[in-house]
Amino acid sequence: MTKVLFIVGSLRQGSFNQQLAAQAEKVLEGKAEVSYLNWKDIPVFSQELETPVLPAVQAARDAVLAADAIWFFSPVYNANIPGPVKNLIDWLSRAVDLSDTTGASALHEKVTTVSLVSAAHQDLAADQYRALLPFVRTTFVDQVTTSGINNSAWADGKYIPTEEVLADLNKQADALLAARSEEHTSELQ
What we know:
Layout: E1 2-8, H1 16-28, E2 32-36, H2 55-66, E3 69-74, H3 83-92, E4 111-117, H4 122-135, E5 139-140, E6 145-147, H5 153-156, H6 163-188
Parallel strand pairs: 1-2, 1-3, 3-4, 4-5, 4-6
């Protein structure tokens, strides 16, 4: 079964993106094995911290390496990819073998996609992911789900996806699994 690693870009318990990830997990039920990356201990990137590899960085790399596909669930901060998520991608995009700095990273050729829940500017941040993820040598699945936030969520904390968002999640899950299947088939040839 395909292993999909979810990376939720908000570390807040019960974040709207965490709630969207839970919806995506339901969509993938019976189709893929889902796990979540715990990345709260990843430090701000610095080359001075690359060796020896920090335990939190190694754990994140190991989780990414063990996955067949990566699905990001991202908030939008000031119309951009959140700094902590970009920082995580910076760590994961570094060569695993530091003696070959142009070599493969944990993200190298991984199938990736992104969904975004935010009050505004989801399309701007989606475009940034569309540029960044292929740049760090992933196979980006450009079936992106974006969502606003229902008004009641600001009071009760409960994100309620629209039927359109749920339909988009289903399409995105199918596209992600199809891309992984194609990637797997080409690896076998």
